[in-house]
Amino acid sequence: MMSSSPPAGAADGDMETLPLAAASDYASVVSTFDPLLSSSSPASPPTPAASPLSRASSSFVDPPSYADVAASSPRSASASSSSSPRSARAATSEYSYIAVSDPETEAEAAATSLVPGSAPTYISYLVTSARRGDHRRHSVRRRFRDFVTLADRLAESFRGHFVPPRPDKNTVESQVMQRDEFVAQRRAALERYLWRLAEHPAIGTSDELRVFLQAEGKMPLPSSTDVASRMLDGAARLPRQLLGEEAVAPPQDVVQPAKGGRDLLRIFKELKQSMVTDWGGVRPPLVEEDKEFLEKKQKMQDWEQQLSSASQQAEALVKAQQDMGDTMGALGLAFVKLTKFETEEAIYESQRIRAVDSKRIATAAVKASRTCRDLNTQTVKYLDTLHEHFGIMLSVHTAFSDRASALLTVQTLMSDLASLQSRIEKLEAASSKVFGGDRTRLRKVHELRETIRATEDAKCCALREYERIKENNKIELSRLDRERREDFLEMLKGYVTSQASYAEKIVDGWETVAEETSGYARRSSNDATY
Q1: pTM of the model
Q2: Residue spans with biased composition (Low complexity) (predicted)?
């Protein structure tokens, strides 16, 4: 509706259309120039600028590129041909299309309702996907609990990987925000989450993601999902473990961390091993000796602190630019009212001349306000990379915790083996003092040797899992470093270019006003001379 540098005289034409008599606030003035702003007000600023940086990107689909927004600028010619690293990674994904849409309210099954006739409700979303090279689209209904189940399964299957974190439940926000706004934000966050999973080199081709996106019907929940059931199961197994009936965890269990209370004895043993190592100063039989990893781990912690600071400053910048746009719009409104007063109360020719100049200033201020809003949209688009990589650090910590947990399991099993071997030596020494041997002690030695064999098998499985997690950490650190370089280069180029272009647009607008009002300035100088 308006150009970045209107020709001389355009300001008068625009200002003639301003509803001066009805202009009571900033929004009514700005809406004259842009219908998209007609619903905005100082209390309800435009959505792109009002949202914090952490909520800026409401969908995986990027907002209009800088080339689209600032196409009139000669600097944007080269920007239109470039594609973002995120788009390039999405292009290599196994999925060509993923969308979360059509939120619906559904009722829980009658069996889950504690009060007759008052079944609880939940929101389900339509998840639509298509694999690359396959024109068919699969659509399934999923609720937020299904996304939680997916995240849990991925955490178990991809230990050591930087698994993208799922959106939080946000119970507080769901109570504070309007329902439609909350559902819209969650829908966008879930869609972005699925795209991040699809872009991951390992997770994007996994059966877990494929089943989630394509399997019809409700997602089956893992057995004994509630904490109470796991604790009761663990408490029931504990006596058998203490009596030696289940002295060693099976190999399929040691490759997963001891959690949830299902294996209380293992939890106690690993807690004891951790305390002995950390507080007792006893060197464990196996320690983390990868100096390169330890150095990278420390650098990642330092990087996280820097990211946190930069992300906070980016949010402050977004707020400042929003305030600048609102203030500039309020200035335009003030000059609109001044123009109305000068026009209605004009007695002298000088008042009418001032009214014309006030129109020009009001026009330029409102246009500058809109430019600030557009600039803020681009600022959010590019600087959101800071917040996104800050969020990735949660996945990094989880992957490093997987490594530490796997190492602790190996250390505990090796300590168990040393303890068992020591018990055998003591029993054999005591049995040798009895003529003919002590059959009871010899039988116990035989049982301990069987336990050692089972523990040795478990240790080998745990050691392989530890080495697998180490390799996953190495691969993921390399991938994150590469993607970080790509993303930050794109962020800096886009941010600097958009700042320069929009600053140029604002300067062009005010230079036009300066040129149009220069005649009035010369006349004022001549009047003062005479």
Answers
A1: 0.70
A2: 50-59, 70-86
